Amino acid sequence: MDQSKMHRTGLALYPGSFDPFTLGHLDILERACRLFDRVEVTIARNSEKSGFFPTDKRKALIEACSGHLDNVRVVVFDGLLADHAARSGASALVRGLRQVADFDYEFRMAFANRRLAPQVETVFLMPSEEHALITASIVREIHRYGGDVSSFVPEPVLRAMRND
Ligand code: PNS
Question: In this structure, are residues 157 and 21 in contact, taking their beta carbons and an 8 Å threshold?
C-alpha cells in the first residue's frame, strides 16, 4: 500500500474566499490531501468581499494549481458552510492557521460551525514557515501597486494576475 495514503480518512472541506489562491493555500491543501481521502476546496460565493477574481475564475485557477493532487475537487457554493458540510457528509473543515492574529476570527467561526454542525470537526493546519505570512489581501495590495507577487502565488494565478 502507498504509505502516503495509509492514514487518510473521510471527506474534508477546505473553505475560503481564495481571492486569489496563494502558495500558503496550496501548502495547506497539500497537507490536507495527505490526511483525508478526499478534499473539497469550497469557494464561498457569498464572501465576494474583495471581488478580485470572480468565483468561477477562482475555481478554474485552483483546479489548475491542484492538478498534481489526485483527491481534490473544487466547488463554488452559496449559503451556510455548516449546512453544506452536513449535506456533503464531510467529517472535517480544514482551515490554515498562520499566526496569533488569525486565532480570534478562526475560533469564533469554528465554534459557530460546531454549534450548527456538531458532527463536523474543524481542523487547523499550519503552513510551512516560508508561507506563514502570506495573505490574499496583502497579495492584492502588492499587485495593485504594481509589485511582484511571484513569490506569493502559484504560477497559474501569477499568469492570470499579470493578464488582468
Ligand atoms: O478565506 P476566508 O475569507 O477567511 O473564508 C471565510 C469563509 C468563506 C470560510 C466564511 O466566510 C464562510 O464560511 N462563509 C460562508 C457563510 C457562512 O457559513 N458563514 C458563517 C461562518 S461561521
Answer: yes
- Residues with CB under 6 Å of ligand 1 are 15-17, 44, 46-47, 80-81, 109, 112-113
Handedness of CA 69, 101, 50, 138 (dihedral sign): negative
- What is the spatial distance between Cα 35 and Cα 7, in angstroms, rounded to a whole number? 7
Q: Which atom of ligand 1 is nearest to the CA of 116?
A: 22
Q: Which fold has domain 8-162?
A: Rossmann fold (3.40.50)
- Ligand 1 center to 2 CA (angstroms): 34
Domain definitions of the chain by residue range = 8-162
pLDDT in tens, 106-164: 999 999 999 999 999 999 999 999 999 899 999 999 999 999 999 999 999 999 999 86
Between CA 75 and CA 40 the distance in angstroms is: 7
